[in-house]
Amino acid sequence: MNTEETFDVKPIGRLFAVLSYFTKINLAGLMKNFSRKKAYDKGIKGILFLCASLSILTTIGIISVLIFETVEFFKEVHILDFLFDSQWTPLFYEKHFGIMSLLCGTILVTLIAMLVAIPLGILSAVYLNEYAGERFRSIAKPVLEILAGIPTVVYGYFALFFVTPLLQKVVPGLSGFNALSPGIVMGIMILPMISSLSEDAMRAVPKSLREGAYAMGATKMQVAFRVVIPAATSGIVSSFILGMSRAIGETMIVTIASGQMPRLTFDPRVPIETITAYIVQVSLGDTPVGTIEYNTIFAAGMTLFIFTFTLSIFSHWLKKRFREEYS
């Protein structure tokens, strides 16, 4: 006898209806949260893009101002007179616009600074990386980098009132304002930059190179100067060029201690004037805006910009050309 069993499908239908309802709610909530996160990510992306664009826009603005004012300057001064005249007297009655005098003073002070900073920076980096213990390094490196935080005005007066009188006792004919004293102090100022960057470059050299040199019987000094430094050449040279760019653009030390006498000389004992010191001199407010005398600061600034920009490109090329990659 066949019996027919019947099932009530209504409870099952209600169950599926309830599940479907809550599933829709969860999907709607997930979609809503996803939309909020997507909008939040877009907002953050826009803010980061504006921050990244700010430096680019600032650079473009600075270059645009320099170019516009420099063009106005060269409408009245021939570029050959600017490049090859040996005198710089735009504030005098008999005006000369030879940038070579300022450029010579800038190069002289920078060379003195690099002669001080490069050997001291390399030797301190070698000691911190190869000889010093971790505890001494953790103390000495921050103390050395404190030099970078001292205001340059302090360095300027230190050069004028301490270093110059000290040098006058041993250097005959040294003037009260000179290129030697600010050059030495500027070298001390950029010493932490060269030392820190060189030490970081040496630290990136793999230990396997050192261990291989030690296995062949090399001493610690031989490993440092014949293995580590050649392997870290790109980073070390980049630190040199970065320090040179910093020295070229330094203002207050040379303004205070080097004098304001532009001259075409490489004698470090006499007063000179650098490009940055001249810009400060004209920017004090005594020169009327819009005059040829005022526009000279933009021509000088463009010269300084081209000089430092060329150094930056050269540094990038060196780093790319001599960079060592270790696996």
What does this structure look like?
- With 327 residues, the protein is mainly alpha-helical.
- Helices cover 72% and strands 0% of the residues.
- The protein has helices at residues 10-74, 79-84, 100-131, 134-145, 152-168, 180-203, 207-215, 220-231, 233-248, 252-257, 275-282, 292-321.
- Helix 1 (10-74) crosses helix 12 (292-321), helix 5 (152-168) crosses helix 6 and helix 11 (275-282) runs antiparallel to helix 12 (292-321).
- The chain is globular, with a radius of gyration of 32 Å.
- The mean pLDDT is 83.
- The outline comes out as globular
> Could you report the average pLDDT, rounded to the nearest whole number?
83
Radius of gyration: 32 Å
Largest sheet: none
In percent, how much strand structure appears in the residues?
A: under 5%
Given the helix and strand composition, which structural class is it?
mainly alpha
Counting structural domains, the number is 2
The number of strands is: 0
CATH superfamily of the largest domain: MetI-like
Classify the fold: give the CATH topology of the largest domain.
MetI-like fold
CATH class of the largest domain: Mainly Alpha
Secondary structure tally, helices: 12
- Supply the CATH architecture of the largest domain: Orthogonal Bundle
Uncertain regions spanning at least 5 consecutive residues: none
Into which percent range does the helicity of residues fall?
A: over 70%
**Order of SSEs:** HHHHHHHHHHHH
